[in-house]
Structure formats: structure tokens, C-alpha cells
Amino acid sequence: MNTTLFSHIQLMNPVLESRYLKLEESRNRLIGELEGLDEELLNRPAATGKWSINQIVAHLIQVEQLTNSYIQRKVQEEELESASLAHTLRSLLLRVALHSGMKFKAPAAVAKVPAHASLNSLRIQWDAARYQLEDTLTELPRPLLDKCVFRHPYAGMLTITQTLAFLQDHFDHHARQISRLRQQWLN
Q1: C-alpha of 129 from chain center
Q2: Nearest-angstrom CA–CA distance, 183 and 162
């Protein structure tokens, strides 16, 4: 029996890990619900100028990629802003807004989605984005947990836990939208 310990293996902070695993569970459930649906259906826009299911998925991937890229750049800075009550309040307002059912115009950086995409290619992109996010969260030093590491376009600076809450709320917001589209197309 080999009892060698690997000192180079780094574990993710348990709080971040539970939030990450919830994101993964949500994503896997959504992909599972979409698998087997006709690609034409997945690429059919709800109305002129509205996104299809696959375009919404592409948007979710873009948001995660850009969020992770921002975090990776931000944690390289020497001085990071500490979270304050104002950050917490803005994060809470963002959460309320995303749960409200209101519609929002996507920021330009994450609004350009492909006209057509296959679910399989989107899954591959999403897998890669999630692996990168997992690495970022695993490598995040503990002292940065209460520092602001991501700038949301409307809510401003957020801590890593607030950022993960945003990613989950943003996902849930669009998962409800996808569910309505699926029901519309399948009925």
C-alpha cells in the first residue's frame, strides 16, 4: 500500500467549494434537461431579436469566462479593497434583482452570442470555463476571501463569495428563462 502524501495538492476552501459544487450541480442538471432536444429547437429564438436556448447558454458561458478572467487579473494586484457594508448591500440588491423576474439588457461584453451553436460544442466550452474557475477558486489565498475581487457592471466590487452568489443567481435567472422556452417549444 502506497502511503505517500502529496504536499502539492491544494484543496479548495470549503465555503467556496460548496458554492462551486452547487453551480456545477445546476449546470449538469440544465445540460441533462437539454440533451436529446433537437438542435433546431435549441437554436430557435423565442421572437425576433430574442435569444434562443443555445444563445442563453452561450451567454452564461461568456459571463463565467469573463468573471473568472477578471478575478485572475485582480488577485495579482498588491492592494485589494476590503469588503464593506456597502459592498454587501449592493450584492444583496443584485441578488434581489436577479430573483425578481425582471428583464435586463446584457452588458455589451457578454451580449454578443453566436446565431447558431451545437449543445455539444457549448458543453465543451462550459467544461473548460468551469475547470478554469475551479482552478482559480482552489488557488485563491485565504486572506483574499474578504477582499473585493470582481467588478459587476451594476453592483460594483464583490468578494469571491458574493461573486459566486452572483454567478448562481445569474444562472438561475436564465435557467427560468430556458425553462419557459422549453415549455413553449414542447407544448
Answers
A1: 9
A2: 31
pLDDT at 68: 98
Region label for 36, one of left (φ > 0), alpha (ψ between -120 and 50) or beta (otherwise): left
pLDDT at position 126 is 97
What is the gyration radius of the CA atoms in the chain, in angstroms?
18
pLDDT of residue 129: 97
Long-range CB contacts for residues 17-22, cutoff 8 Å, separation at least 24: 17/137, 19/161, 19/164, 19/165, 19/168, 20/133, 20/134, 20/137, 20/164, 22/168
Domain ranges of the chain: 54-72+83-98+119-187
For the chain, helix (H) and strand (E) counts, in that order, are: 6, 2
Could you state, in chain order, the average pLDDT of each consecutive group of 10 residues for the chain (187 residues)?
Answer: 54 93 97 94 88 96 97 93 94 93 86 93 97 96 95 95 97 95 84
Q: Which CATH architecture has domain 54-72+83-98+119-187?
A: Up-down Bundle (1.20)
Contact 165, 91 (CB under 8 A): yes
Greatest Cα pair distance in the chain: 63
